[in-house]
Amino acid sequence: MRYDPLQLAALSAVLDLGSFDAAAAALGVTPSAVSQRIKALEDRVGTPLVNRTSPCTGTETGLRIAKHAEDIALLERRLSRDLSLETTEKPARLKVAVNADSLATWFVQAMVAADDVLFDLVIDDQDHSTEWLRRGVVSAAVSADSRAVTGCDVHALGRLSYVATASPTYMARWFPEGLTTEAARRAPCMVFNAKDRLQHRWLDRHVAPGIVPPAHYLSSTQAFLDAAAAGLG
Questions:
Q1: Which listed residue, of 13, 30, 188, 230, carries a Cα 20 to 30 Å from 152's Cα?
Q2: pTM for this prediction
């Protein structure tokens, strides 16, 4: 099936900006024209593509097609760059799944280096980010999984080293006799979210298997740093 580029552009604009009016302003057409293009695309595909809420969101099929449109835009910009062709089009958009720690440490510098790309980031654990690729929602992912998803390439980016840390006050309170199994069962740790198993794997490897300590859930890299310095976990 071949897709009308104007219809694809309309769908991407609505999902990016959240409304038909905003999409129309960005594309330089009327809201009615945007609505007609999306309706024609929905008729062609045979399923709704946009949840007409406030803001508008994409259905599962709509998100897949919007990602296809973004991939086409990236390929066109790469071809124009390789052929040294001038272009006045707006920057292409790239949707990437990335873990919060990478975003807090090195990923922003990589974004700066790609100055002709607009980024749409999905934040997820490094052990789960490839699921977004498999579902076709993102075009790339920063992942701890070295296995390639079908249709994708894998490139080694380096490695992040995680070191167990705690404040002196925390250590004095919870581990006065050192890192014992019993103390590790009682001492609170910090977990990013329900998907984060890093602390449990560390305890399994360095203390004893099967330890499930009390946990604070802090879905912020900066909160982790602040909480550790304050003696929370």
A1: 13
A2: 0.66
